[in-house]
Amino acid sequence: MQCPYCNDKESKVIDSRHIDSKSIRRRRECESCRKRFTTYEKIETTPVMVIKKDKSRECFDREKIKYGILKSCEKRPVPMEKIENILVHIENEINKGFVEEIETKKIGEMVMEELKSLDEVAYVRFASVYRQFKDINTFVNELKSILIEKGE
């Protein structure tokens, strides 16, 4: 595995943990610069096609979801490990369903559900972009629904 810091190809595994039945998280240390980094191994599965709003299709891209989550969690106290767990959970749910195609709407709902329980501000940020809030009233209504769910 190539070191992301010095590009050396020699590293040793310090710790391995199963994330789920299809993924392993490995902590590595570069033999050259001694910096540590994390890698993930997962079983390659049949690609899932994502049906977009305009009915076009493209291959499922985990990085697109990760980018959206990272943007919504920006400057929030959300550890990368939690974001990675969300990504793994969403991928597992999609693969568990043995689906060949999934709508972006379903993926967006899954992300929002995960963010709602993780960080309410990140949830509202993601929802405002995903649901394309048109005005302040839509935004306020979403905040009210969160408060009602919390019983406040």
TrEMBL record:
<dbReference type="GO" id="GO:0003677">
    <property type="term" value="F:DNA binding"/>
</dbReference>
<comment type="function">
    <text>Negatively regulates transcription of bacterial ribonucleotide reductase nrd genes and operons by binding to NrdR-boxes.</text>
</comment>
<keyword id="KW-0804">Transcription</keyword>
<comment type="similarity">
    <text>Belongs to the NrdR family.</text>
</comment>
<dbReference type="Pfam" id="PF22811">
    <property type="entry name" value="Zn_ribbon_NrdR"/>
</dbReference>
<dbReference type="GO" id="GO:0008270">
    <property type="term" value="F:zinc ion binding"/>
</dbReference>
<keyword id="KW-0678">Repressor</keyword>
<dbReference type="GO" id="GO:0045892">
    <property type="term" value="P:negative regulation of DNA-templated transcription"/>
</dbReference>
<dbReference type="InterPro" id="IPR055173">
    <property type="entry name" value="NrdR-like_N"/>
</dbReference>
<keyword id="KW-0862">Zinc</keyword>
<keyword id="KW-0067">ATP-binding</keyword>
<dbReference type="GO" id="GO:0005524">
    <property type="term" value="F:ATP binding"/>
</dbReference>
<feature type="domain" description="ATP-cone">
    <location>
        <begin position="48"/>
        <end position="138"/>
    </location>
</feature>
<dbReference type="InterPro" id="IPR005144">
    <property type="entry name" value="ATP-cone_dom"/>
</dbReference>
<protein>
    <recommendedName>
        <fullName>Transcriptional repressor NrdR</fullName>
    </recommendedName>
</protein>
<dbReference type="Pfam" id="PF03477">
    <property type="entry name" value="ATP-cone"/>
</dbReference>
<keyword id="KW-0805">Transcription regulation</keyword>
<dbReference type="InterPro" id="IPR003796">
    <property type="entry name" value="RNR_NrdR-like"/>
</dbReference>
<keyword id="KW-0547">Nucleotide-binding</keyword>
<keyword id="KW-0238">DNA-binding</keyword>
